[in-house]
Design goal:
CATH architecture of the largest domain: Orthogonal Bundle
Radius of gyration: 24 Å
Largest sheet: 5 strands, mixed
Order of helices and strands: EEHEEHEEEHHHHHHHHHHH
Strand content: 5-15%
Oligomer: single chain
């Protein structure tokens, strides 16, 4: 019978090592395989699980560098995806490791508090009724089981200094910001803004690896748009967005020469971007003297802007 090798990253609180286990290939979930390893081969192996029905979110781990919810992931699917019978299992990224595949979620819970990830009282509301449209705004983000998969996959968190809010927390901010029953509309947008909302690099990994298929990257974009609607103009992220918006509306093209100046200002641009700009000019990738002129069909581009503005206004009215 064909064997499957599970190469698991172990940690005992002080020492880290990799340990191999073998199981016969059979119809099973990844969690089922971990349970069998612990029960039949190594009772010291640590991992977390509870519901076994993709509800509690406690069994997420990395397999070959990708986050999976172990209880719903079929072994055969993994072997077909990676075209190998050797699987490398590790704890989730960007979370403190307690032991083996177990990570600490306490820090994530503290960050949820920063965005008031719960329903706030609304003084003028006497019931909890919602229209179908209002419910659909929050139904998908409410599916989050806080498994940590999006946190593990976030490319920004890999380099962050601890000030950026993880995607799971951004989802909480979005979910309650859009809840028609909430009494603190706008507060969570400001909280996200104060915690480096603009640091998201649009890698989309939080969305593609979410086991509940929550469009977290789109939610972060919504929070950014709301920040702009609320008057945010001072951050480099807001200035960057306005530069894109204004340039494309004006000419249909991005003025790359002015983009950094508008975003970071003259002093920071000179200090941080000069060597890069010189290389770009030398390679013929940028002409600092070129000022884009309106492209042919610019009126059609501007009509798209107007169409988007009307749709947005109508959606907000609904």
């Amino acid at each position: 019978m064909e064997s499957v090798i599970f190469n698991i990253k172990r940690f005992d609180g002080e020492r880290t090592w990799n340990q191999e286990y073998r199981l016969p290939r059979e119809t099973n979930t990844l969690l089922g395989c971990l349970v069998r390893i612990r029960e039949e081969q190594d009772p010291t192996l640590n991992f977390t699980s509870a519901c076994r029905h993709a509800i509690c979110g406690s069994c997420a781990v990395q397999v070959n560098g990708n986050a999976y919810l172990a209880c719903e992931t079929q072994l055969d699917a993994l072997l077909e995806t990676f075209e190998t019978t050797t699987l490398y299992l590790e704890p989730l990224n960007n979370l403190p490791v307690v032991r083996d595949l177990v990570v600490d979620f306490d820090g994530l819970g503290e960050k949820v508090k920063k965005v008031s990830g719960w329903l706030e009282e609304r003084a003028d509301r006497c019931d909890h009724m919602q229209s179908q449209e209002e419910f659909h705004l929050i139904s998908k983000p409410a599916d989050c089981v806080l498994c940590g998969s999006c946190v593990s996959e976030c490319r920004e968190l890999a380099y962050d200094d601890g000030t950026y809010l993880p995607p799971a927390v951004m989802n909480k901010a979005y979910r309650f910001e859009r809840d028609s029953r909430d009494g603190s509309r706008g507060a969570r947008v400001l909280a996200a803004l104060q915690n480096n909302l603009w640091k998201c690099i649009h890698c989309q990994q939080c969305t593609t690896k979410c086991p509940k298929h929550i469009p977290i990257a789109e939610e972060i974009s919504y929070l950014r748009r709301e920040a702009l609607r609320m008057g945010e103009k001072d951050s480099s992220g807001a200035r960057h967005a306005y530069s894109f918006y204004d340039d494309v509306k004006k000419t249909g093209l991005l003025n790359e020469t002015m983009l950094a100046l508008r975003t970071e200002g003259m002093v920071k641009t000179a200090a941080n971007r000069t060597p890069f700009a010189i290389r770009m000019v030398a390679a013929g990738k940028m002409n600092p003297l070129h000022m884009p002129k309106p492209v042919a069909g610019i009126e059609s581009v501007r009509k798209l802007y107007e169409f988007s503005r009307r749709n947005d206004k109508e959606a907000r009215h609904v």
